[in-house]
Amino acid sequence: RRLKALRDRYADLIRQSYPDIPRRVSGYNLPWLLPEHGFHLARALVGSECTCVTVLEATVRLVSSPPVRSLLVLGYPDVYTAGDHIMEVLAHKPIALEGLDDNLVQDMKKKRLHPEDVQLLPEGGGWLLVEFGAETKNAADDQARALMDALKNTKKPPSMKLFDDPEQERTIWLVRRSGLGATARVPNAKDTWEGWEDSAVPPEKLGNYLRDLRKLLTEFGYACALYGHFGQGCVHTRIDFDLVSKAGVEKYRSFIHRAADLVISYGGSLSGEHGDGQSRGELLPKMFGPELMRAFHEFKSIWDPDWKMNPGKIIEPYRADENLRLGVDYRPPQLQTHFKFPGDDQGSFARATLRRVGVGECRRENVGTMCPSYRVTREEMHSTRGRARLLFEMLQDNPLNDGWRD
What we know:
6 strands, 406 residues, six-stranded antiparallel sheet
């Protein structure tokens, strides 16, 4: 009853205020409370980030996955031009449409991460990875060739490469999936961080949004690669924020407020995938306004009357700069170790513990490079990621008085 009363009071505002885009994760999913959407409570709770409920069990709806795939890679002069052509590619109904820029490729080369794979890309400075699916290989290839024929008749057709070797297709997708790892801790470059990593806009506006985002990054003196789920207008990036000095943290906070204004001006969302949490919670009033923020507050209160669920996230959030992993007080001890940490780690054991970026590649169980102890126990604390986190925490708050005995 309370949820329906909330919906009825805010229904018109909900219909007016939510961007109609493929990727909008920011805010609570109040549109699913509307009568035309069936008052769907499960979908209304999606993305609430444990601020309302803990899900113990879920029934899911499976969708068909085409058994055969064909991969077409399109090369454009730059990533912005690639963004300009999203809609003409989408018109051919691919099952996946991803994008990446030349900065990502250069970072991979510097880290010697799949360097032989990036040579497979056609000529260009920005690329679209277009995948088609069907019941047979010929049918999937026919869809790809139909797009190629259409693009050949455009004013400035991109370079094109259709892959027929499954192993080459796999390695090209590995290039895209390695984006986060490739752009973190690049040799002879500043460390990059989350903070504005998954903004989203209408796909038809992607090219110009990428241009304006790059202008803003340049204004602040930040560098980063741009890649992501371009077919859905979602842009991933890690930016070289300075998160250990007072001036650097203030600059970071100023940037995310300006970046929020920019993406909202395009009818977009602060987050297209990873959610708001603390890093974007304070920005939500910019996107939704004071009335819907009151609706969010009431929505959470209905589910969580004692406000015990994940406090400080989304509603009444901590400031984005309030609980940084590093921050201005980050002063880890520089320990003498038996083994050296040269090169990328600058001789520092503390810096080596920061190499973990959290994607969980070490938790895989049946393909690629895997963490053997995790495979045995299936426990996070025995994964490479878990151990790196433990070592990072051991270097904080002077935990070394009694030595490391375990």
